[in-house]
Design brief:
This protein is of the alpha+beta class and 464 residues long. 27% of the residues lie in helices and 22% in strands. The protein has helices at 8-22, 34-37, 58-70, 121-129, 145-150, 158-161, 189-198, 230-241, 283-294, 336-346, 394-410, 435-448, and strands at residues 26-27, 51-53, 74-78, 93-97, 104-107, 112-116, 133-134, 168-174, 180-183, 204-211, 213-214, 218-226, 248-256, 271-279, 300-301, 304-306, 324-331, 354-361, 383-390. It binds flavin-adenine dinucleotide.
Length: 464
């Protein structure tokens, strides 16, 4: 497949044919809607695809794949653009904006959510909670379920129920041939395996069926201390994680709250070390679990019994699109020396441009590879780090990227690989999987998309 940008004639032909199939759901560079259509959730990413198409049905997706294929153009599916940063050039790609396909149905008896591929977690969480059920959602309610689950999916219940990828029970997919297939344990099993953690390289997903879990309430919240206490608090948190049951999922975090007016006074513009946690149990047992952390005398303590929709506010993620630069890695340990490394690069007195450096506790079900699981059966590391800063201008972006690089360099001794969802730079897919899984993923790619038409953010290339 050519790597040159489309010529004017090629672009005209693709636009004509796509428009004849999808009507005004196709937007080209001359269209007044262009800048809105190509915008990603991460506003720091200047996406410049050849064309944007906004399918409303699986038939639309089949038509767009067919036209793209005929013209030697790639198809880049996107739910929200939360992870637009790592994707390679879109010069010769149709950006398939899936956001119009967001219908959700809950089958309470079978404990399943059936959703179209552009649905966000916020479209699922409330309807599931109405039946006393919860999906394995992450920290931000406007992340799309599909991109999140294909990339692994680290939720507030990860230690109890494992990775969200392995809660996928079936997927409807338009393959690079333009065929519509259903992938589940019995039908297209290799494709089903690859989709569960291998990312978006294998076809355009149009719908997913996910398992839901019986969770009516959790004891969840945040403990805040002044950031000067970071080494002491993070060391105590790390020691505590060694003994907590699987019902407890938590993270330790350096948080520099921006001085924005919409942020409440007690935290606005301040720097904290925080512990966020969700306990799948009642208040009394949760209080018992948290006792060693509360002995450190947090300045604020927001723990309360909440229904699953309340989890969406726990991590204080931005409620709307923002410009950011981020990156993460898996950590083999979060020892005192690793904590010193983090605090030395971005703790008090370092004038860090990073808003947040979080370290999530994994293990439990997230670390157990059930043979029925998919390409990411488990994460073979006890902790995952993710750091992010605002990148509203090129100068801000440069400062954040530099500090992220410094942080990665400082944590290099504990580098245990990459987690797809926390990786915001291209080029690391071979470090996201075991060697065997990576080889098998490339074989699945060769079988379903030998011409490499489908363009993921983290691409699995076909086998050589
Ligand atoms: C604020 C914030 C909070 C986050 N919190 C968490 C968290 O708690 N846990 C966690 O695990 N991750 C988290 N993430 C990471 C997030 O899961 C990834 O960015 C994920 O890729 C987002 O999926 P998306 O579809 O919304 O994003 P997009 O950028 O739209 O999609 C990412 C990739 O998914 C694939 N994809 C999306 N839709 C389709 C489709 N229909 N068919 C085929 N492929 C598709 C494509 O390869 C695409 O490039 C967070 C990210 C942010 C920015």
């Amino acid at each position: 497949m050519s790597t040159y940008p489309l010529t004017g004639n090629e672009l005209g032909a693709v636009l004509d044919q796509l428009s004849s199939r999808l009507g005004d759901r196709v937007v080209g560079p001359q269209d007044s809607r262009w800048n809105d259509a190509r915008r990603a959730w991460n506003l720091a990413v200047d996406q410049r695809p050849a064309v944007v198409a906004r399918p409303e049905s699986a038939q639309d997706v089949m038509a767009l794949v067919e036209v793209a294929r005929e013209h030697g153009v790639r198809v880049a599916p996107q739910g929200s653009g939360h992870s637009a940063a790592p994707r390679a050039s879109l010069d010769r790609s149709v950006l398939a904006d899936m956001s119009a396909m967001n219908a959700v149905e809950i089958d309470a008896d079978r404990r399943r959510a059936r959703l179209q591929a552009g649905a966000q977690w916020q479209h699922v969480i409330g309807p599931a909670a109405a039946h006393g059920l919860a999906g394995l959602s992450g920290s931000a309610p406007d992340v799309c379920v599909t991109g999140y689950a294909l990339g692994g999916g680290a939720s507030w219940m990860i230690r109890r129920y494992g990775l969200a990828a392995n809660s996928i029970r079936s997927a409807e997919v338009v393959t690079a041939d333009g065929d519509r297939v259903r992938a589940d344990a019995d039908s297209e099993p290799e494709l089903f395996w690859a989709l569960r953690g291998g990312g978006g390289s294998f076809g355009v997903v149009t719908a997913l069926e996910l398992e839901l879990f019986p969770v009516r309430e959790l004891y969840a919240g945040v403990l805040f201390w002044p950031q000067e206490r970071a080494p002491e608090v993070l060391e105590a948190w790390q020691a505590w994680t060694a003994g907590v049951p699987e019902e407890m999922s938590s993270l330790g975090r350096l948080l520099n709250v921006p001085p924005l007016e919409q942020i409440p006074e007690p935290v606005r513009g301040r720097s904290f070390v925080v512990i966020e946690a969700a306990w799948l149990g009642g208040e009394a047992s949760g209080t018992e679990q948290l006792a060693p952390l509360r002995e450190l005398g947090p300045e604020m303590d927001t723990f309360a019994m909440i229904a699953p929709p309340g989890l969406a506010a726990l991590h204080m993620d931005p409620p709307e699109p923002v410009p950011g630069a981020a990156n993460g890695m898996l950590l083999g340990d979060f020892s005192a020396a690793a904590i010193d490394a983090v605090v030395g690069v971005a703790g008090p007195g370092t004038d860090s441009p990073l808003l947040s450096i979080e370290v999530r506790h994994l293990g439990g079900a997230a670390g157990r590879a059930n043979p029925k699981n998919g390409a990411l059966p488990a994460i073979d590391a006890p902790y995952a780090m993710f750091a992010v800063g605002m990148a509203a201008t090129p100068e801000m972006k440069q400062a954040v990227v530099q500090r992220l690089d410094d942080l990665h360099a400082a944590l290099e001794p504990w580098d245990a690989g990459r987690f797809l969802n926390f990786t915001e730079r291209p080029g690391y897919t071979n470090r996201m999987f075991s060697d065997e899984a990576y080889r098998r993923l490339r074989e699945v790619k060769s079988k379903y998309d030998p011409d490499n038409i489908i363009q993921a953010n983290h691409e699995i290339p076909p086998s050589e």
